[in-house]
């Protein structure tokens, strides 16, 4: 798994990409939500740079495990925590979590893998679950 500088736009984008891919695929609604939110701009990246991070994550997941695509999208806990640790800034963590929740909610379904990424991030970053992000989604996910 490639490493990014702490609190870099790429490190933040990778967490969003993990939420996007956590169920083994991404939907048209999720991609449209990224554009509607200007997720790339919010993270300090161009749209092309955001897609490079998503592509890089896909490569890392596929090269790290010789499994089917859906299984490859399931990070082990230690790797997930390592990726989450690349974000140290509390404001950036909040911003990234909001983007993750919005992307996951775009297709109106929370898959197990998506739930795992959201709940692990909230727990690891010590963020409360009673938040204005999307209360119903978070409560059903975690």
TrEMBL record:
Q: Report the InterPro entries cross-referenced here.
A: TerB-like (IPR029024)
SUPFAM superfamilies reported in the protein's UniProt record: TerB-like (SSF158682)
In terms of domain of life, where is this protein from?
Bacteria
Q: Which named protein is this? A: TerB family tellurite resistance protein
What organism, scientifically named, is this protein from? Ideonella margarita
